[in-house]
Design goal:
Radius of gyration: 21 Å
Oligomer: single chain
Largest sheet: 4 strands, mixed
Number of strands: 6
Mean pLDDT: 89
Strand order of the largest sheet: 3-4-5-6
Low-confidence stretches: none
Structural class: alpha+beta
Order of helices and strands: EEHHHHHEHEEHEHHH
Helix content: 40-55%
Shape: globular
Strand content: 5-15%
Distance between the termini: 32 Å
Number of helices: 10
Length: 259
């Protein structure tokens, strides 16, 4: 590719020239005369450079509401796109290998993840077994649930929000990381919240960072969750444990390097 006036190279910047026509919503004007790739185009472009697990992590981030750095977790950004918009955009692109991978990943992305660990929990639990996940039935992330009178009295609030939710099946998975609780007030609030859900017949499965890191312990926990939703959880078949550990490594690699 020949040089053009005003174009500069850098060690951390990759330049590409694209001769194909792009969908109308491929670029966003971020300032007068300055255009940037849309979130959907970024996802498509990165499909040629990322592994499947890394691409999933990117999709969850683009469709999630992560805390804004430096806000102490008090401020979150709005989702930049949705899984549906990712898929709709990808359908307009040439059917090359990288785009096929992007479409496959976009179909597994769930909206509304609120943190890196929620993303990792969801990816490992929900991604199909053939891709290295545990293949649990589809769940909603950070989905609110209105409480009944008894639950409201216990929780002292009208509704609760769960990390990984199968409300219709009466079960929710919560991630309890080392930094999840800021003090006694937060612990008391979370305790009331769990008690309120239990009082209304909802099982609350809490996953600690140590449990998540242990492949077999986490699989055992999620197996019980899967059976609660009505789907029998199968054990490890030949080759699946290797796919599972690869998926974990890919997702973790993305977060270590990009965040």
């Amino acid at each position: 590719m020949g040089k053009k006036p005003g174009v500069r190279s850098a060690a951390s910047v990759y330049r590409r020239q694209c001769g194909r026509s792009m969908p109308r919503n491929a670029f966003l004007e971020v300032a007068p005369g300055v255009w940037a790739s849309s979130p959907e185009l970024v996802f498509a472009q990165m499909a040629s450079r990322l592994t499947y697990g890394e691409l999933l992590a990117l999709g969850y981030e683009l469709c999630g509401s992560y805390p804004i750095e430096g806000s102490g977790g008090d401020m979150v950004r709005r989702p930049l796109t949705t899984p549906e918009r990712l898929l709709a955009f990808l359908e307009q692109l040439t059917d090359v290998r990288a785009i096929k991978l992007a479409r496959s990943a976009a179909k597994q992305v769930r909206r509304k993840s609120a943190s890196v660990m929620e993303t990792e929990l969801a990816i490992i639990a929900l991604t199909p077994r053939r891709r290295g996940g545990l293949g649990l039935p589809d769940a909603r992330l950070n989905e609110p649930r209105a409480l009944g009178d008894r639950g409201r009295r216990i929780a002292r609030q009208k509704y609760v929000v769960g990390d990984l939710c199968w409300w219709e099946c009466g079960i929710v998975v919560e991630y309890d990381g080392r930094d999840a609780h800021s003090g006694s007030l937060a612990q008391a609030r979370d305790s009331r919240r769990r008690d309120a859900l239990l009082a209304e017949g909802v099982d609350v499965v809490t996953v600690t960072s140590a449990q998540f890191s242990n492949v077999y312990e986490f699989a055992s926990l999620m197996g019980k969750v899967s059976e609660k939703t009505g789907k029998r959880f199968r054990g490890w078949l030949p080759g699946q444990i290797e796919k599972h550990t690869d998926l974990r490594w890919q997702v973790g690699k993305f977060h270590r390097e990009q965040l």
